[in-house]
Amino acid sequence: METSRLIHQLADGTRPVRRLPAPWRRVEIWLAISLPYVALVVAAHSMGMPVDLAKLLSERQFVVEELATLLTAVAAATAAFCSVVPGYDRRVLLLPLPPLAVWLLSLGAGCVNDWVRRGAGGLELHADWSCLPPAAFIGIVPMLVLVVMLRRGAPLYPRATLALAALAVAALGNLGLRVYHVGDASIVVLVWHFGAVVVLSLVAGWIGRRLLTWKTAGNTTAS
Amino acid sequence: MDPSNDANSLGKLMRAAQDGDSAAYLRLLQALAPLLRQTVRQRRKFLQPCDVEDLVQDILLSLHTVRATYDPARPFLPWIMTIAHHRLADGSRRQMRRAANEILVAEYPETFPDDSTNRGETTYGDPEALHRAIGRLPNGQRRAIEMLKLREMSLKEAAAASGMSVTALKVAAHRGMNNLRKSLSVEA
Fold it and tell me: Rounded distance, CA A103 to CA A76, Å?
């Protein structure tokens, strides 16, 4: 087909389109849906296990870790939304690195504290398989919402975008899971929680090109 | 025209296009096509004109699919150039994949792996040896071979002419061919 004919075809079929809101506005929308859901899953799972939130918030380690987790989720989601809008500097993809580093450092510091207080027993690793269903369940809705929202953008960096999305979702899920995993040693959180975040991000990045693709010509002229 | 004004006017046309103004969209795409063509030619100097045009069309189609992502508050040219850059990279990846899976040859070097199908020229065996081998066949097999293979009669015609059943003819012809193959390979 000649380019001039294609141009006329595209222009003839054009209809008003709803502009994408700014990335931070989209993060707000995502959080508005995801946070209540995470809170609901946490409330449902911790039934019968009273959580002393006031006591938790008085622990510096817990507060730093939770804040870093929340900031990681927000920064990763912002970076993911920016990555599907052409024209942003690609360095925006590195946005979640600082809060992620703080999160990792706080967990590392927790491991050292446990070791100093309890010796080698403080670094003992155990698996808590009963935690797996809520951990998987807590991420379903935030991930679905995020992927649907991201698919409205341009798949410029599909792998990085989906890895960032997984990081945002896993961090948000971790924010909730930590509330009733307060007694866990830092090494358990580091290996199981943070490890799951890394694995999820890598797997999501691997399938990124399949989930986020440019639409075909057939779809475009019809829209 | 001043480039910044030009970029501003392109941004305004894009905003109108997002609102459904097809005339503005037509003007925008017509203004962009030469710009994109020039960009593709600069970045892919080795491409043929038809391949350049393919890439330009690819970028225009991509622009169309993601036109909702343009924010009128942000500059237009970085937006379209990012799309162009990524579509060019995707095009290169496609081409590399295709090149990795394709082998260009003047003629196919072989048809099937078996040696007999890959002889450079067709050779014929010795017709005298074939006649002698047919003559050595048992009577039924020889008649079946003569009628079905040499005279190319159908099974029905051969059955009528010989008085043998179709099944018996098939069996005799099959055994005859096997015996011929054996005796010819021994002679060779």
Answer: 13
